From TrEMBL:
PROSITE patterns (alphabetical): HTH_LYSR
Gene3D superfamilies: 3.40.190.290, Winged helix-like DNA-binding domain superfamily/Winged helix DNA-binding domain
Protein family: Belongs to the LysR transcriptional regulatory family.
Organism: Lacimonas salitolerans
Ranges of residues in domain HTH lysR-type: 1-58
Protein name: LysR family transcriptional regulator
């Protein structure tokens, strides 16, 4: 079986549509459909069930998926060995991360890695949800809790801290905050409650805040509300240095600790390029969190 056929099969399996596969492959969706039909005819089995919701793999498709992913890993490893330059990283690597990490840590960390590896291309997918590695939305992901299922490599990167914070302008023009109960007289900024995708992000419930007056599923939106004197909220310590005039509130009473985890496909442990990038990424994140928290 030709690798090109498996490559098209994998694209349809991961995107669950001909149009999605066509975008990934840069091929017309009709061509993708014809290639899948010929592959099914050659194998004598239907690989996908077609419905208004898209293309779902059949049992035969699920069985082929295992072998197709192994072939993909072998092809990737071969290309790395043939094209790579000793001691340097090249090619494209995509990282998925929650937007707090993606906005306030990854740009500077990845820039340092790319400065040392000029042929490297890095894509950062900032999503306020868990990145789906099984669909190859990214080569690796950063999460705030270790996944409980799946064939994955999970490595703890570092702990990080969060505190209540507000702008000096907001605090100057609103009642003083000396106790936790005083928050009831203030606008609280936080996540939209029904869009919290990980229990580790439910900071306000943990500290006993019931009402969120200004809510967003984006950490960046929340942080910009703080910068514009919109209210008070829980902030990553590593973000505080980037917000002029942001200061901690009740740090002696409220201090939260969370962790970042690097999550990868289990089969990728054999890919030297990804292993070296992952090591550099983890080292860089640890150093950057420590540097920024010391300034907060």
């Amino acid at each position: 079986m030709q690798w090109d056929n498996l490559r098209i099969f994998l694209a349809v399996a991961r995107s669950e549509s001909l149009s999605g596969a066509g975008k990934v492959l840069r091929v017309d969706p009709a061509t993708v459909g014809r290639r899948i039909a010929r592959l099914e005819e050659r194998l004598g089995a239907a690989l996908f069930g077609k419905s208004p919701q898209g293309y779902a793999m059949t049992d035969a498709g699920q069985r082929l998926l295992i072998h197709a992913e192994r072939a993909e890993q072998a092809m990737t490893a071969a290309l790395e060995e043939l094209q790579g330059q000793p001691g340097t990283l090249s090619g494209q690597i995509r990282i998925g991360a929650p937007d707090g990490c993606a906005n306030y840590l990854l740009p500077q960390v990845c820039t340092q890695i790319m400065d040392a590896n000029p042929e490297l291309e890095v894509q950062i997918v900032a999503l306020p949800r868990v990145v789906n590695l099984s669909r190859r939305e990214a080569d690796m992901a950063i999460g705030v809790s270790p996944p409980a299922t799946g064939r994955l490599l999970v490595q703890k990167i570092t702990d990080y801290r969060l505190h209540l914070a507000a702008s000096r302008a907001y605090l100057k023009n609103h009642p003083p905050i000396q106790r936790l109960e005083d928050l009831q007289r203030h606008r609280v900024i936080g996540y939209i409650p029904d869009m919290i995708f990980d229990k580790e992000l439910d900071y306000l419930t943990e500290i006993g805040v019931q009402r969120v007056a200004m809510a967003s599923n984006s950490v960046s939106v929340q942080f910009n509300w703080l910068r514009k004197a919109g209210g008070i909220g829980v902030v990553h310590d590593f973000a505080i240095p980037s917000g002029h005039g942001i200061q901690k509130v009740l740090p002696q009473l409220i201090s939260l600790t969370r962790s970042f985890y690097l999550i990868r496909h289990a089969d990728d442990r054999r890919l030297d390029r990804l292993n070296r990038f992952a090591a550099a990424l983890c080292d860089g994140l640890r150093a950057e969190v420590a540097r920024l928290e010391a300034q907060s």
